[in-house]
Amino acid sequence: MINRRAVLKKIPSILSLLMGVPNIVNSGILSKKKILLRSSWQTTNIGDIGHTPGVLSLLEKYLPDVEVRLWAVSVNNGVAPMLKERFPNVPIIKSADTTALKKAFEECDFLLHGSGPFLVAAKDVARWSKETGKPFGVYGITLSERRATNDVITLLNKAQFVFFRDSFSIDVAKERGLQNPNSAFGPDGAFGVDVRNDNAAIDFLKRNELEEGKFLCVIPRYRITPGWKIPNKNIPFDEKKNQLNESMKEHDHKVLREAIIAVVRETSFKVLICPEDMTQMELGKEILYDPLPDDIKEKVVWRSDFWLTDEALSTYILSAGLFGNEMHSPIMCIGNGIPAIVCRFAEQTSKGLMWNDIGLEDWLFDLDDETQLRGIVPAVLAMAKKPRAAKKKALKAKRFVQEYQHKTMEVLKENLQ
Questions:
Q1: What is the pTM of this model?
Q2: What would the DSSP string read from start to end of 377-393?
C-alpha cells in the first residue's frame, strides 16, 4: 500500500525545483531550434494515442517558435489523419523511412521522449545520444522496479531532464541509482490533449438520447489487456493471463454496476458505457450492461464500437464526469476540467497514483483494498448530485497540472538554448 500523505508531502519540494527555472523568452534563438519527439507507441488505446497530441499541444503553446517533428512508432487506424488535421506543420516520421530519420538526426537539436508506461524507446534514445551527441529529455513516464534496469538508469542519468508522471516512480528510480539533479514530477503528456471531434460526439449523443451535462461515462478494464482479442495484433493467446482476467472480472466490475444502478435510481442522470481500448466494448456489454436490471438498462447506453481520442474527448467534455478502471480517459478529463474517478489494481503501473500527486486522492480507489470499495458508489453519486462541487474540484486539479506543464516546458526551453 502507498501512503498517500507521504506522496503528497513530496510535491512542494518537487515544485520548488521547477520554480527555480527562469521564464526564458528568446524567439530569435528558438525559431532556429528543432525538436524530434519520440512518441505514438500504439493505436489500440485512446490513452496511448493521446500521449502524442497532448505533448504536441504543449510544445505548440509554450514553444511556438520551435519546429517539431514526430518520430512515431504507430499512427495507423486513422490516427495519422487526426494528428495532421490538428498539427498540419508537424511531419510524421517512421523508422522505416531511413532518409527522413537520418535527416532528422542531423537537423534536430533535441530529442524528447514522450509519455509512456516506461522508457519505451530506450534503444532509440541511446542511439540518438551515441550517433549525435546531442541532448535529450524524458517527459512524463512511469518507471517500475522491473523496468528500472541498469541500462535505463544510466541513460536517464545522461538526460537533460527526466519528468516522471507519478512520484512513486521517482522513488523507484532513485533507489535504483538515478542521480540526475533535473528529475522531478511532471504531468503525463495526455493532460494536454485538445484534439476534438465535436460533430461526431454530438451526433452520437443525439442518436442515443444523451443530453449534455446529464450523463456520466464509465469504462471497464481487464486486469491485463488481452492483446489476443485485438484484430491484427497477432498476439498469441495467454492462458495464465486469461485465467487472471476471468477470475477478477466480476470482482473488479461489480462495484461499477452498483454505481450505475445508484446513479440511475437516485438521480436524473444517464450512464454511457464506453471503451478506452479495443478490448473493452465486448467487456462493457458482458460485465456492465447485460447484468443490469431492465429498468436500469433504459437509461444506460452501451457504445459498441471503438473511437479515436478526438471523439472520446469531445464526448467526455459534454458529460458530467467519468469513473471506471482506466487511467488515461480520466487524465484527459481532468486536463479539460471534467471530473474523473479512478479505480486501479496491482496489475497496472503506478501511474494511477498521480491522482495523489495532483490533489485528487479522494477520487482514487484501490480495488485490491476491500476497505476502499465501499467508497466508490458514494463518490460517483456525489459527482452526479453535486456537479458544481465536482467541477470545482476538477478545475483546481487542472490548474495544478497546468502550473507543472508551464514549468516543465520552461525547463525544455532553457535546454534548447
A1: 0.93
A2: HHHHHHHHH-HHHHHHH
Residue 24 has pLDDT above 60, yes or no: no
Report residue 96: phi and psi, to 5°. -70, -25
- How far apart (Å, rounded) are the C-alpha atoms in residues 249 and 343? 14
Residue 206, H or E segment = helix 198-207
CA distances to 95, 133, 234, 302, 347 from 68, in Å: 16, 19, 33, 39, 35
CA angle 228, 84, 69 (to 5 degrees): 90
Strands 183-185 and 136-141, bridge-based pairing:
unpaired
Query: Rounded to an integer, what distance in angstroms lies between the CA atom of residue 173 and that of residue 180?
Result: 10
Q: Which residues contact 210 (CB under 8 A, 6 or more apart)?
A: 204, 270, 272, 301
Residues 37/55, Cβ–Cβ less than 8 Å? yes
pLDDT tens column, 324-342? 999 999 999 999 999 999 9
pLDDT band of residue 6 (cuts 50, 70, 90) is very low
> In the prediction, which pLDDT does 103 show?
98
Are 218 and 324 within 8 A, CB to CB? yes
Closest CA to 114 of 65, 50, 61: 50
CA distance 147 to 295: 47
Percent of the chain residues topping a pLDDT of 70: 93
Phi/psi of residue 97, nearest 5 degrees: -85, 80
